[in-house]
Write a structure and sequence with these properties.
Helix content is about 70%, strand content about 0%. With about 150 residues, it is mostly helical.
């Protein structure tokens, strides 16, 4: 009787585990925001204060974008329009956090970051292996110039 009960509990656990893993294809807001933030931190060479602010901003923006995507599912035109407005607000917030050089680099690479985020979501939350950025920054890093925050 004990064996039967243990086997039944094990089967139930296995069934619930498989069901939970099967529904986990959608990417969480936090993982999506962290992925984008990590990429921006690396590429823009942000300090600790900027990194924390970027994480806050991206978490808010991604949550709002996910809500728009859920609300207007199937109407890509409206989703694009509303997400563009949300991204414009993010640009304004980032302008207050980043240095002029960093913001110029970010602004020139916005399409890259958008593509990076979309690929992350499309791959179900797996890291995008192509981390090469199409930067508009033409100043070589060896010139001795430093960005002042």
């Amino acid at each position: 009787m004990k064996r039967l009960l243990v086997s039944f509990c094990a089967c139930l656990g296995l069934i619930f585990t498989c069901a939970a893993n099967g529904n986990e294809k959608s990417v969480t807001v936090e993982s999506r925001a962290n992925n984008l933030s990590d990429q921006m931190i690396r590429e823009l060479r942000l300090n600790n204060y900027q990194s924390n602010k970027i994480r806050e901003i991206n978490k808010d923006v991604v949550a709002r974008m996910a809500a728009v995507e859920a609300e207007f599912a199937g109407n890509q035109e409206v989703i694009d329009q509303k997400c563009k407005a949300i991204c414009t607000e993010r640009d304004e917030k980032l302008e207050n956090v980043l240095s002029t050089v960093q913001y110029n680099n970010y602004y020139g690479d916005r399409t890259y970051y958008s593509k990076f985020d979309k690929e992350f979501v499309a791959k179900g939350g797996q890291m995008v292996k192509d981390n090469a950025i199409a930067s508009t920054n033409t100043t070589p890093a060896t010139t001795g110039e430093a960005a002042v925050n």
